[in-house]
Amino acid sequence: MTPNTRFSLSRVTFPKELTCSMRYSLLSFFLGALLTLAFSPFDHWLLAFVSLSGLSWLWLNPHEHHPIRYGFLFGLGNFSTGVHWVYISMYAYGGAPLFFAVGANILLILYLSLFPLLIGLLLHYLSRPATVRRALLIPLFWITGEIIRSYLFSGFPWLSVGYTQLYGLFKGIIPLAGMFAAGFILMLICSLLAFSYYRSGFAAIFAASLIGVMSFSTQFLSFTTPIGNPISVALIQGNVAQLTKFEPEQMLRDMQDYIQLIDERREQVVILPETAFAFMEELIHDDYLNALDKQYREKNQAIILGMPTGNYEKGEYYNSVITLGSAHGRYHKKHLLPFGEYLPMRRLFSFFRHFVTIPMGDFSRGESVQPLLSTNGVSAGVFICFEGAFGRVVQPYSYAQYLINVSNDGWFQDSIAADQHLQLTQVRALELGREIARATNNGHTVFIRNDGSIAERLPRFQRAVLSYTIQPRTGQTPYAKYGEKPLIYGLLLYAMMCALIFLIEKEQVKSHARYLSTRAN
């Protein structure tokens, strides 16, 4: 190259196939990021159709043969924008170095991205592009992957596509068969619409329209009815600073502040957040709790509060909800958050404790079946924080007349984690057809109607009290009665139907080949 020669990018050329593949790779990442906007706090649920139809279009494209890459990049786009907040709790409150917290967050994103990657892998080896087979396999593999993800390693169902239908066209499917069923319908319609682009489109569009109309019509069904008189409920949002929440002096001040706020209330039921009393129950003198219990019983007031409990002799400690006054019963959290509330596979992950120290991070699991609470004679089902992400955890409380959720999303500051968490809780209300009273440390503290919509809410990061009248309800939605069994059976039936179609398709190809061979002879 001479001194007068200039280098120009315009002279650099790429093979057409390479540039096309690069564009599609960027598109797949963009579509994954776009899907995040379909979830709370954005709630642009229509973008779920755009994103998932786009992914299906890439997977069905007969001119592209990189479904594995597109699946992985889609996952990276979705989870890097949707769960980027995980590092905050470890770095800001767990004392972890920034590199460790961010590294752990990246590993989680990569792990979650493996699921769409594996779907692309299965599609690559089990079907050809632009075929009925691939179009039908996409929703089956996708929802099966989401169900597995909700169980594997304790489960992490965050950003499952069915949650986008809380305000969407297919919200009526949720009380019928659950959130995953709504996600399956969404994926099936998106896949059929994408397939119509490559093949004769009328049949696919007609099938997608018919499924869509039938699914949309389910939202007009009703399964539960009011029972008894409404009850007045107060939710106390303490807005306790997470950084000092577990310091002994602060714990004492917080407990005193909460008691003062309770004393000012006249509602029948008063609910405090998760670990509102941060002291272990054994460290508080029995006479003190007994005096509070007697005081509230005389006021005919039911107090529900989060508090760690346990037994020193047995070495068992629980993230619990206890009751005072005219409430009865207690609840121990049974689905714990890995690495936050317990350390899984201790030998393998023992190094984790050298980097991160989470207060109250070594709880025991509560019993899988626990009795409902009674609040002034009205039954209530309780679930704590992370448990709200799992329909199967809350589903056994379908006999309760209303639900109580206590949580503390202060671990993740003002990120979108709290909004996403609230959306999961709203879907639990819709699944069971029950109203939910949700008390949190610094938001979102809300009352949720039985259709999943928000009735009343407090602003985040304010100390305040929210009062509302809850209507107890009776009756069971189909999901409350049967859980996810109909979905599992439905997926098995769908898989058998797909296999039958594939066999017929294969026989037709063979028959056509024999016909052509006969004509050639």
From TrEMBL:
<dbReference type="GO" id="GO:0016410">
    <property type="term" value="F:N-acyltransferase activity"/>
</dbReference>
<feature type="transmembrane region" description="Helical">
    <location>
        <begin position="487"/>
        <end position="504"/>
    </location>
</feature>
<keyword id="KW-0472">Membrane</keyword>
<keyword id="KW-1133">Transmembrane helix</keyword>
<dbReference type="GO" id="GO:0005886">
    <property type="term" value="C:plasma membrane"/>
</dbReference>
<feature type="transmembrane region" description="Helical">
    <location>
        <begin position="173"/>
        <end position="195"/>
    </location>
</feature>
<keyword id="KW-0449">Lipoprotein</keyword>
<dbReference type="InterPro" id="IPR003010">
    <property type="entry name" value="C-N_Hydrolase"/>
</dbReference>
<dbReference type="InterPro" id="IPR004563">
    <property type="entry name" value="Apolipo_AcylTrfase"/>
</dbReference>
<dbReference type="InterPro" id="IPR036526">
    <property type="entry name" value="C-N_Hydrolase_sf"/>
</dbReference>
<keyword id="KW-0808">Transferase</keyword>
<comment type="similarity">
    <text>Belongs to the CN hydrolase family. Apolipoprotein N-acyltransferase subfamily.</text>
</comment>
<protein>
    <recommendedName>
        <fullName>Apolipoprotein N-acyltransferase</fullName>
        <ecNumber>2.3.1.269</ecNumber>
    </recommendedName>
</protein>
<feature type="transmembrane region" description="Helical">
    <location>
        <begin position="202"/>
        <end position="223"/>
    </location>
</feature>
<dbReference type="InterPro" id="IPR045378">
    <property type="entry name" value="LNT_N"/>
</dbReference>
<dbReference type="Pfam" id="PF20154">
    <property type="entry name" value="LNT_N"/>
</dbReference>
<comment type="pathway">
    <text>Protein modification; lipoprotein biosynthesis (N-acyl transfer).</text>
</comment>
<keyword id="KW-0012">Acyltransferase</keyword>
<keyword id="KW-1003">Cell membrane</keyword>
<dbReference type="Pfam" id="PF00795">
    <property type="entry name" value="CN_hydrolase"/>
</dbReference>
<feature type="transmembrane region" description="Helical">
    <location>
        <begin position="72"/>
        <end position="93"/>
    </location>
</feature>
<feature type="transmembrane region" description="Helical">
    <location>
        <begin position="45"/>
        <end position="60"/>
    </location>
</feature>
<feature type="transmembrane region" description="Helical">
    <location>
        <begin position="21"/>
        <end position="39"/>
    </location>
</feature>
<comment type="function">
    <text>Catalyzes the phospholipid dependent N-acylation of the N-terminal cysteine of apolipoprotein, the last step in lipoprotein maturation.</text>
</comment>
<feature type="domain" description="CN hydrolase">
    <location>
        <begin position="236"/>
        <end position="472"/>
    </location>
</feature>
<feature type="transmembrane region" description="Helical">
    <location>
        <begin position="99"/>
        <end position="123"/>
    </location>
</feature>
<keyword id="KW-0997">Cell inner membrane</keyword>
<feature type="transmembrane region" description="Helical">
    <location>
        <begin position="135"/>
        <end position="153"/>
    </location>
</feature>
<dbReference type="GO" id="GO:0042158">
    <property type="term" value="P:lipoprotein biosynthetic process"/>
</dbReference>
<keyword id="KW-0812">Transmembrane</keyword>
